[in-house]
Write a structure and sequence with these properties.
heterodimer, A: about 120 residues, mainly beta, 11 strands, about 50% strand, globular, B: about 120 residues, 12 strands, about 0% helix
Chain lengths: ~120, ~120
């Protein structure tokens, strides 16, 4: 199956700093990528939908200035958590789908565990 | 917006036995796709099975099969001959067929324990 690579898998940062998470589709071009946040033992909460070459669409309640998403190419989307605080500690997952095919499954990255200290 | 409900937060099954995980959804659309994803302790999301709403035949993948009841908006997952490696969180998901950029709607998940 298609491969989506997410990096880093774990990151610890100090409060007030920014951290960038990368999501790459390794063997296909993903015009759309999704960014999720997952709290322990909970479901995936969609944060934003990222379309290549355009601004991301954020879900209600997600601060776009806090969670900067860039999708500059068909194979790379990045999520930058700016001025991170301990409450931003969570598991972040990206996913991507093939363009042009309805109802295709989503291919997920391995996830990034962010800890803000 | 579409909603997906998984009413069983936790389930357990004896190894080699069969277990069924429940999922219901709410939508006004007629064309959509349903998925079951597995999330083991590694947290990597893995597709288990997919069902197209326009197909009446229930999808099957080896030991995994679904019972898709479109009128009832129900989409349960049956795991036969359960194995220790099946232990994971299972998420039911919905995706509209209107276009390719649509988001997935996930249920709250069912934690499956397999007892040796």
């Amino acid at each position: 199956g298609a491969v989506v690579s997410q990096h880093p898998s774990r990151v610890i940062c100090k409060s007030g700093t920014s951290v960038k998470i990368e999501c790459r589709s390794l063997d296909f071009q993903a015009t759309t990528m999704f960014w999720y946040r997952q709290f322990p033992k909970q479901s995936l909460m969609l944060m934003a939908t990222s379309n290549e070459g355009s601004k991301a669409t954020y879900e209600q309640g997600v601060e776009k200035d806090k969670f900067l998403i860039n999708h500059a190419s068909l194979t790379l989307s990045t999520l930058t958590v700016t001025s991170a605080h301990p409450e931003d500690s969570s598991f972040y997952i990206c996913s991507a789908s093939f363009p042009g095919l309805k109802g295709t499954e989503a291919f997920f990255g391995q996830g990034t565990r962010l800890t803000v200290v | 917006a579409q909603t997906v409900t998984q009413s069983q937060p936790e389930m357990s099954v004896q190894e080699a036995e069969t277990v069924t995980l429940s999922c219901t959804y709410d939508t006004s659309e007629s064309d959509y796709y349903l998925f079951w994803y597995k999330q083991p302790p590694s947290r990597q999301m893995i597709l288990v099975i997919r069902q197209e709403a326009y197909k009446q035949q229930n999808a099957t993948e080896n030991r995994f099969s679904v019972n898709f009841q479109k009128a009832a908006k129900s989409f349960s997952l049956k795991i036969s001959d359960s194995q220790l490696g099946d232990a994971a969180m299972y998420f039911c998901a919905y995706r509209s067929a209107r276009n390719t950029g649509n988001q997935f709607y996930f249920g709250t998940g069912t934690s499956l324990t397999v007892i040796p």
